[in-house]
C-alpha cells in the first residue's frame, strides 16, 4: 500500500486525477456483475436531482465519506491507510444502494477516493484535498448524468 501511495504522490496532480477518474469508470468493466447493474434513471429526474448529484452530493459525501472517517479512524484510533480506505469505501457504498452491485462499485470508488484524499492531504492541505476529491466526484457524476441523458 505504501508503494501505491508513493507512486500517486509522485505524479503530477493532473495525471493522478485522470488516473482516478479512469479507474472509477474501468471498475465496472473489470467486474461483469457491476457493468450489468441498472443505474439510477436520471432522465426522469428533475433538474434538482442533477444539481444535487453534481454539486451537493460530492461535497457532502466527500466530507462524510472521506474526511470524517479519516479523522475519526486515523486521529482517534490510529488506524492504518488500508483500514481507513476500506471503512470509507463501505460508507461510500452505503450512500449508493441502488442495487447491491452498484453499492460494491461505489464502495470500491470510495476506497480510491479515500486513498487519493490521503495522498493529497499530505501533498497539499486538508481543504485543497477536499476540493480535489469533491471535484473529481462531481466530474464523475456529471459524466454519468450526461451519458444517461444522451443514452
TrEMBL record:
Name of protein: CPBP family intramembrane metalloprotease
Molecular function GO labels: endopeptidase activity; metallopeptidase activity
Ranges for domain CAAX prenyl protease 2/Lysostaphin resistance protein A-like: 46-142
Keywords linked to the UniProt accession: Hydrolase, Membrane, Metalloprotease, Protease, Transmembrane, Transmembrane helix
InterPro entries: Rce1/LyrA-like_dom
Organism the protein comes from: Bacteroides muris
Taxonomic superkingdom: Bacteria
Upper classification of the organism: Bacteria, Pseudomonadati, Bacteroidota, Bacteroidia, Bacteroidales
Pfam entry (one): Rce1-like
The keyword Hydrolase is annotated on this UniProt entry: yes
GO annotation (BP), single: CAAX-box protein maturation
